[in-house]
Write a structure and sequence with these properties.
alpha+beta, 5-stranded mixed β-sheet, about 40% helix
Length: about 140
């Protein structure tokens, strides 16, 4: 591998493609590929009422898609270690936004997953995100 040459860029691009293909072959990736409503880098603004005050939560969901029953929220992680508990507050914000904007109006469930790119492991954090107190 040459530094500063195209071999480094090619190696990085190849590794990135493999990570993307791994997700595409995963159970969540297969559902995503079949979705007619798929959004990447979905920016949102969600209202949170706390102690009589309005607070807005802004964020960007890596991947959002749905099937007939469920709205799926995927957050891709490049962490070396899988520590889902470290991401629960973030995922609670995503859960609230996706539920308010898509799931509730369509009478669907909302599910949130962390997808660890290095291991190809998907962690369902829906219940922890749903139960997390954003106040």
């Amino acid at each position: 591998m040459k530094f500063g040459g195209s071999s480094v860029a090619d190696a990085i691009l190849s590794a990135g493609k493999e990570l993307a293909q791994r997700f595409a072959r995963s159970p969540l990736g297969i559902v995503a590929r079949g979705s007619e409503n798929l959004k990447s880098e979905f920016q949102f603004r969600s209202l949170l009422l706390t102690d009589g005050k309005e607070l807005f939560i802004n964020g960007t969901i890596d991947l959002l898609f749905e099937d007939a029953e469920t709205v799926y929220v995927i957050d891709f992680k490049t962490d070396n270690q899988e520590t889902p508990r470290d991401h629960i507050p973030q995922m609670a914000c995503y859960y609230k936004a996706a539920s308010d904007l898509f799931a509730v109006p369509a009478n669907k469930k909302c599910g949130v997953w962390l997808y660890y790119l290095r291991t190809g492991h998907a962690v369902d954090v829906t219940m922890k995100a749903k139960e997390f107190d954003l106040r």
